[in-house]
Amino acid sequence: MKRLLLLSLSIVVFFACKDAGNRTKVTNEIQPLHFTFTTSHNIEPIALLNLGGLYHLIYGTSDEPDIRKTNIIGQAISEDLINWSESSKAVFPKYNNSLLKGGIIIDSNNITGYGTSESPPLVAVLIRIEIGDSINQGMKKAFPILAFSTDDGNLWAVTTDKINFPPAFINNPQNVGICWHQPTKKWIMSIALNDHVELYSSADLRLWNFESLLGTDFFPEEIKWKRTTLFSSGDGIHWVLLVDIKKSGKHQTAGGTVYFIGYFDGHSFLNQSSQLHWLDYGEDIYGSLISTGCDGRTINVGWRNNNDKQSSKNNNHFSPIITLPRELNLENSNTEWFITASPVLELKKIYGKDVKLEPVKVSYKVDDLQLISGVKAPFEVFLKFNTSDIQKGSFPTRFGVSFWNSRREHMTFGFDRFGYYYIDKSGLVPSLGTQIVNDPIRMPSNHSDSTMSLRLIVDISTIECFTEGGKLVMTSTYSSSEPFNRLKLFAVNGNIDFLEGKIIELRTSRP
Q: Which of 9, 265, 400, 511 is least buried, going by the fewest C-beta atoms within 10 A?
């Protein structure tokens, strides 16, 4: 116990002194790690493209509720996938009172002829939705558009070429996934149609042909398909189908993104997943975008519009955010294929000072063992616990880590031995004028290994949690009156050995 006390005190003193010496500077300069859009509250993701080493996140917006404004396609650009900046927007000036839905790709081989082999164009396959003068009048008409850009998406030109888009796309305008299938040398478009998905192919992005459909046997009747993306995995063999879904019936939610892993021959997708897998178990993380890094990595970005009106304006919760970009890989476990996700390696470029955490026994007899104090969000936490006794009666019913601030607001990430991880935000105080329902968010688990490793990234108003080697991921936004600056370990109805850990400050200061 004396050794534990000395350890805790040394860590507390280290961060407390550091904090005291830099309090004013840090407070003025620290910025959120997660990128938040400032242009509009009503934007939707279209594409994530790697253009010459720069990543372009392209989105569409109508700037509602004033639908009379000119429709805009905008983009944010990043050199390192961590720091993003909103760039100039491409405006379609003759399309007032309209929305744009569709997909945007890089025509790397200049098959369309809109660019050159040295400077391939961006090509947008879009549906323009003409909106009435009043929101209540709803949608009027939908028009197919083929547009291209030769300056990385800043200026767009609409072609007059003959086009023949799928009727399912025209009648159900949506942001779609378009990928390249090398064996057949065709682009593949996937379209969500409420209770099934249809696949179409094109050799030139102008004329599209029906290939196949995925039926209702994928989901129960209460699940509705909203958006799909098909892409080739890094192993060159398997394909992944991402699907945004929404539950219908009495308890409606904005849903999230699930995935299936299988084979694709250019015509039909053969599903090999025996169960439903979620890409992120967090609250309404959807619209996942896929890109390929310069080194061949599969990069994924998730999206949240935050239209729940439950969060503090001080924490930018009313603006759309993106998850930290993640690298996706495939892993086979007991004959079942899984996607594993981890924050991109570029995150290490903003690593600051770190503190190693020594082993300690976490006991239910000790009220919340203080692990560290004085740390400033954003930070990354690595924790490892000994779970070899998980089947024994002495094993805790719950254990994990909680995050606190000086006003005693707190949030918990933990594991329940009845088979799930959870985020509990009931210790947060709602901001003035908000009605926050702080029900725990759960993520099912069948953990049976002798150790459990947790990787948590805590930002000013967002937490991302990675467990089971990245097979399980959960993201949540939260609202607190001030950032967390203390961490505590806890155990309920039992004892558990904390094996090792590390806390790393993430430098998001701006010059």
A: 511
